[in-house]
Every structure is written in structure tokens, then in C-alpha cells.
């Protein structure tokens, strides 16, 4: 074979780290290397099918695509070849010498931290080719891009250490051939039965035939035997597919080693004809909060693979849904740009969104434990829904879960249906409070009235909650009400204790006037209240004002916020208020009011502009 232009390259630093981990740390499930290489070969054939739609000559008069495996025990080699799209010299260097994916460092960190789950992470992060070095002392890749000349082939070689060689070669057939020179202790992978078992376990649903070379002792000839079913599972009748087959296909599709929580397989006919197979995972992807998180459905058109991670068929708040869609109506040459402005896509998106929410509703009714698992993994993502999808707002709201006073746990398990069914007879609204943490919400003085009247309050402490509640206005005719804001409906809960001037002592009326005069425009209003039982005072937002938590979100995002003016509510029954009421010394009186106001600010906002002044004033008054 004629070769020329041999060059030596150094691996990218992240690849060196990755290879070191592959070679020295991964021992628990070595067989996954074959799963990864077969999956890559299948993807290469899928890409050829797609590209050949517009360029039929790429097939080079050979449209029978396949993956082939051959074994040479004498040379201790395992060869996996495909006649897919192949790679150019440039592709080979870029794909095998570097890791372009921006999550590489996160991947390496995850590998180091999650010792017991390393093999799961390999497929999850899309760096499966390098798993070859778990079992190989040397790897050779011969490849040629479809439609190019035989002399434009490329040979890539490496022992998985600091460098690799790239050489121009003549390769008559398109596609890629990977030769693994196995380590002596890995000779089990030279046994045909072992390879068959691995293919059956991981790659049975690959839609491309996977053939293995056998030797006929009687006729002294070699022959190829297909070892996978090579049928598109989603095209089969649902009644003929077992639960285990659905689970195995999910693992093949996603490289997730966990079983899915639930799935839905549907063949839709009518204005649009398509097949969808949607899964709800058990565990969130490592990068679900990254801006460049790859999500979306795998798209096929008339059984022809088009693209991975097609995000146009589901809204962003359902980015955890995995699966595929196979459309009979979209054009084969569809692009991401065409998908974005396509009426077929819009209609399918609406249908799949409703289908996904229906799956989650079923999961919530079928199994509390499984839904709890889902919520703990994806609840924060689903909470983005009310802001993104007004059309399905009630369905999303029905799936939300909350912590509350009565549940007495930080775990979010209470549904809005359950909340409404347990509402107080005088209660008109769904009450909630937002705070920085569950502990902060649970101990807010705003809750005192509700605890006393045995009224449940939702305790919201996730950063997204305040934003979500701007869009979650009502549920089943009951409006949501923040208890840190002024609200007329709360008066009905305290009607038996409504404060009237003629029932107040002269001292208390005079006290209220003094406080108002002293505080002036520092607050919006000063008034007495029976909403409090254990706390002397509290700050309340006006019904038309921004809440404290929303102001914090704006501030954290670097946005300017208007000055918040609070209503200062004072508990006339509190012993401290009764004592301050009797203080005649104006300087001492003002010091106490400043202290009370700072206490209220601390309880409401969690911080003070001048904590030192607060502490100094408190110490001074304690000494007195």
C-alpha cells in the first residue's frame, strides 16, 4: 500500500487527561467500548443516508450499508468497519485528536468524582471512541470520506499516550475501519460468542445490519452472519414490543444506563402522519443547566435519519424528554432553519407537548415514588413552564409540587389539587410565600396568622419561584396570593378581631401617631394589625408593589430596581410594643422604633444596609 505525508501530532490536553483515565481507571465494564464503536458506525451510516438525499453519488454504486466485525486471534486484533460517510484527513485530526465539545472539563471532573459511574458517563458525554483504549494497546483508523478518490484515504494511529500519527493512504472503499490491537489480558474479546452477546445486549436495535465474520470448518470458507435484529423498533406494533425492549432501546438511544421512568409510543394519522416515542428519564443530564446543553428529539423522515437534538418539537421547559420522532410529511432535505418556520413542525410540537404533559400526569397518578424521583430531578426545569407555555398552563400547574406549613418538610410533595381540597372554609385564595430558603420561609412572621387559623401556606424557596408566580395567577378558579403583600381577603380571616379606633387605648392611638410622624416617608404607611401573634412588627408590600424576592432577583441580575416602600405593621398586643408605648423620652422612643424597623427589615430581606449600627443600637438598649 502506497503511503505518503506521514505527520505526528500531539493530543489536546483534555484528550490526554481523558485517555489517562480511560487506560488506567476504567475496569468495571470494559465491554462498553464495542457499544460505542458500533454506535459511531451506525451514526456514520445515518449521515451518509442523509447526505445522499441531495448527493446520490456518495453511495459510490454501493447502497447496501452495513457494519462488519472480524477477528484475528493470531494478531490479536478486532476490526470494526462501516461503509458510512467516512472522514477526510481534516475530519480525522479534528474528531480524533481534539474534543471540541465545551463540556469536556465538566466531563473530566465528573469522571473523577463519580468513580462508580464512569462507564455511564462515557456515552453521556459523547467521547466513546476513546473507550477503545480501555482494551487496546494500539488503535488504527483507516477512513475515506464518501465521494472522494481512493488515494484520499487517511490512516490514524495511536497508542493512547501523548501523540498520534496521521498518514495519507489509498482506501478503495468509503467509510471507516477501526483496528484494535488488544492487550494480552483482553483476549476474551477475540471470542465470537462474546462479541455476539455484547451486540445483542447493547446494539440489537441498531437499524443497520451488524455482521460478524465466521469460519466454516467443513467448507474451509469465511462467511458473514448478521447478529442484530436491525429493525427500527418504533415502526413495530406496540403489542409486539416488550417492556425490556423499550428500556433497551432507550439506553441505546440515550447512552443512559438507567431505565426510564415511563414512556409513550404513538402512531398518529390524519392531517399529519408521524410516529413518536417519548421517554421520561430517571436522572437529569449532567449539563441540563448549561447554556449549550444538547437536548431535543432524534428526527427521522420516512425512516431516514435526519438529525440529533432537534429542539423544535418540544418547548425548552420539557428539555428533559428524550426520544425520537419519525415524520412522513416533512421533506427529506429538511434543515433546522426550515423546521423553525414549518407549519407541520408547529402542529407536531403542540401535539408532542400535550403528549409529554399527559405522560407526566399519568406518572403522577400511577406512582408517587416515581413521580417524586421525577420531581427531585426535573422539578426546577418544569417550573419554567408557566412563563413559556400559557396554552398548557393548567396542565403544568397540576404537575407542580410544593412544600407547605402543614407538610412540615422541605420536600416538595404537595399538589395544588391537594391544597385546594384541604382549604379552610373562609379561605378564598391559594396562599404562598417566597424566600431565600425553606428555613427562612418556614419561620417568616407573615405565617403567624395562618398557623393560628390552621390555614396552609405554600413555602417557595427555589430561585425560580418568584418568577414563576408572576405567570401562575390562578388554579381552578382560586387565585394565588403572596402573604407578604397586602390583601383584602385576609381581613375575613381576622374579622372577629378587626381593629377599631374606639376599642384602642388612648396610649396606643397616640403611639401610632408618634411612629407615623417619626418614620415619615421611610415607609408607605404605619398601622396596627392582628395578623401577628409572636412578632412585634412586620413589613408588608403594597398589593401593587414589587415583592422583596423579585427585587432580589432583579438586583442579582444587575438590573436597577425602584425604591421599595413597605407598610409597617405593628402588633398592639405584643408586650414589647406595650412597653415602648409608655416611653416618654423622645430620643429613647426613636431608638426603639429604629430597632423595630431594622428587625422587620432583617426578617423581610435577610440583610441590613448597616448591620453594625443595628447591633450597636440593640446593645445600647439592652444595657438600659
Tell me the count of domains.
Answer: 4
Low-pLDDT segments: 115-126
Helix content: 25-40%
User: What is the CATH class name of the largest domain?
Assistant: Alpha Beta
User: Based on CA inertia axes, which overall geometry fits?
Assistant: elongated
Strand content: 15-25%
The largest sheet has its strands arranged as 1-6-5-4-7-3-2-8-9
Number of strands: 22
Major sheet description: 9 strands, mixed
Query: What's the overall average pLDDT, rounded?
Result: 87
Sheet/helix structural class: alpha+beta
The radius of gyration over CA amounts to 33 Å
Q: At the third CATH level, what is the topology name of the largest domain?
A: Heat Shock Protein 90
Query: Helical element count?
Result: 21
Distance, first to last CA: 99 Å
CATH level-two architecture of the largest domain: 2-Layer Sandwich
Supply the CATH superfamily name of the largest domain.
Histidine kinase-like ATPase, C-terminal domain
Can you tell me about this structure?
The longest helix is centred in the middle third of the chain and has 24 residues, at 343-366. Residues 115-126 have low confidence and may be disordered. By secondary structure, the chain is of the alpha+beta class. Helix content is 36%, strand content 20%. It has a nine-stranded mixed sheet with strand order 1-6-5-4-7-3-2-8-9, with helices on one face. Strands 10-11-14-12-13 form a five-stranded mixed sheet, with helices on both faces. It folds into four domains: 3-226, Heat Shock Protein 90; 233-376, Ribosomal Protein S5, domain 2 (2-Layer Sandwich), CATH 3.30.230.80; 401-493, Rossmann fold (3-Layer(aba) Sandwich), CATH 3.40.50.11260; 499-624, Heat shock protein 90, C-terminal domain (Four Helix Bundle (Hemerythrin (Met), subunit A), Up-down Bundle). It starts with a strand and ends with a helix.
